[in-house]
Amino acid sequence: MISSYILPIALKLLYASLRISVTSQQMPLSDKGTIIAFWHGKMITGWLLAKTICPEKKITAVVSCSKDGRILADTLERLGFSLIRGSSSRGGNEVRRAMQEILQNEGVIVLTPDGPRGPVNQFKYGTLRVASNNNYSLVFAEIRYENRWVLKSWDRFEIPKPFSKTFVKLHLLEVPEFHNETELQVYTKNLSDRFSHA
DSSP for 128-154? Predict the structure, then answer.
């Protein structure tokens, strides 16, 4: 597929042109593995940002099994990512098991917690369960572009204009232990509300 050859080059060129400023909390990451998350609509910067943050780590992306997911998977593979195919709605248990295995070996998992179909800017339970049950670090990347195009898609997909100033704030989240589903649901809603406009 021709797009799988063109997209990696285009993404790398666009990312390299951005004037990215990163701020982060000075908190130690868990030595058990790390999950890096960003909203689906910010993925143009998010994927390559993960490689910038963890240049010496093996990075695995969680990508849906949809048609669009296949294009993304091909692109990320050419950019040097390993892949887990699936989502909360398709193969959720298998995805979580694969994530656990990678994280137990101190790997890095990168994902969009509101993908692949939304609701927009809303965490799903699976990612938070994995982080909570095993005390893995969860880093949320808040990404904002000074100049961008916004598509009329469910995720309000953003394409940064070349050379745009790009502001990234990394939030290291200490996900608590959940004793029941209600605690998980309340925490998920509060976290989603906190970053819904990020």
Answer: HHHHHHHT-EEEEEEEEESSEEE-SST
Instruction: Classify residue 190 as exposed, middle or buried by CB count within 10 Å of its CB (0-12, 13-18, 19+).
Output: exposed
pTM: 0.93
Alpha-carbon separation of residue 74 from 42, 112, 136, 192 (angstroms): 18, 17, 28, 29
**DSSP H helical ranges for the chain:** 2-17, 43-53, 67-78, 92-104, 125-134, 181-195
Region 98-106: mean pLDDT is 91
Helix (H) or strand (E) holding 62: strand 59-63
- Nearest CA-CA partner of 117 in 151, 92, 154: 154
* DSSP assignment letter at 29: P
Whether residue 166 contacts residue 145, with contact meaning beta carbons closer than 8 Å, is answered with yes
> Which residues lie closer than 8 Å to 96 by C-beta, 6 or more apart?
126, 129, 130
**Lowest-confidence pick of 37-41, 87-91, 102-106, 134-138:** 87-91
- Which residue shows structure tokens 């005390």? 135
Average of per-residue pLDDT across 122-142:
92
pLDDT value, residue 56:
85
